[in-house]
Write a structure and sequence with these properties.
This protein has helices spanning 2-21, 27-37, 39-59, 112-178, 183-218, 232-238, 252-273, 317-386, 392-426; strands at residues 22-25, 65-74, 79-82, 88-91, 95-108, 225-228, 278-291, 301-312. With 430 residues, the protein is α+β, with helices and mostly antiparallel strands. The strands form 3 sheets. Strands 2-5-7-8 form a 4-stranded antiparallel β-sheet, with no helix packed on it. Strands 1-6 form a two-stranded parallel ribbon. Strand 3 and strand 4 (88-91) form a beta hairpin. Residues 16-20 have low confidence and may be disordered.
Length: 430
Amino acid sequence: MKRQFFIIIVILLSCIQLSQAQQRLSLADAVEYAAKNRYDAQANKFDIELAQNAVSKSRNEWIPEITANGEVLYNAQLQTMIFDNGEEFKMGTKNLTTLSLELSQPIFKPGLSTDIKINKATLSVKKEVLQEKKTNIKIYVIEAYLNVILREQQLKLSEENTERYKSYFDLTQNKIQLGTILESELLQAQTDYENSQTNLQKAQQNYTLAVKALKYHLNMPDSEKLVLTDSLSVLLNNNPMQIRNTNAEDRPELRQIYYSQQENDLWLKKTSMMWLPTILLMANYTTEYQASNFRFSQKLWFPYNYIGLKASFPLSNIFKLRTDRREYQLKSSQLSMQYNQKLHDINYERDKYNTELLNAFGNINSTTKTLNLSKELYSQQLAVYKLGTISYSALLDIKSSVNTAEQNYITAIYEYLIAYSNYTKATGFN
């Protein structure tokens, strides 16, 4: 009884370890996994936080600046004053100590409010850049995931072909012993079987490389076992054919340029304001100690204070503002051209991927019909071949057609899903 209980515990622990060692991922899980584990995906998020911090930093410019100062001066030699009659008089004291508080509050500072708007526009640009990067990572993962499924299907077809060619070779060996076929047909069957083994090896290599590529895009360790839970047929059912009418201006690439234009216009506006004066509210409270000693406990502290306004004009910057204004005017024209070109590119992409999607969907229908016909024909001819009515070469031609039809079918589904992914990106649909 104890032995059976021990065996059950070992089996349960083995199952737990096996489940922990395997990473089962659907396509949606793979996209989410990449978003959480890719270093670039995590690093891109800091761009938003940095831009938000820049907005807060520009707002803090309105906060008054309060400074506490303390100063102790020892006059080793006092200043001498000479009167008209030639009499000399020493001014000041040996010890001059001051403690003060100073306040500087901006009342009007040209461009300060504009700086906040500029940083908000920069934040909007960063958000659109982040969205574009997220979409690109998603596309990379989808393509890699679908490629693994395609290579896995091709590997299965190669394994089935190898088994079939093995059965052909065994069947041909039986026939050569009965003397019903020529020896050249046996040699042909053996050659085909060996070629199928070579193709199987290549298919295995392609599948291994595809899995490595997917793990790379997921930032997953090579040692971790990856199991894909989605198949081409499941993904085909989950992504039915549909044409969407969307606005090209919703694409993050266009919105980046749009917000960059706003940012540039704000810079241009700021240059028009920089000739205005900066006005500050100034206030000071100081208490002063003057004596020939350093006994600060004595009642020799005397306070004074003031309040006032300070205006400063950037006289020398006026000449510099001309070139700055010209720079932003040129950049405005450049951004306008870039926007129009990007809009043209996006409209072309939408038409291109729309056509590819329609073509891929049509290819699925045609390859499905061809595959069904070729399988039906092969099953009929295989039965006839076993009776010795047709030659091996004739059966081989039919089997080659079946292989081609199977490859075309899974490739058509793969190309449709890739086209569907590209089309959703081109139409700005997440």
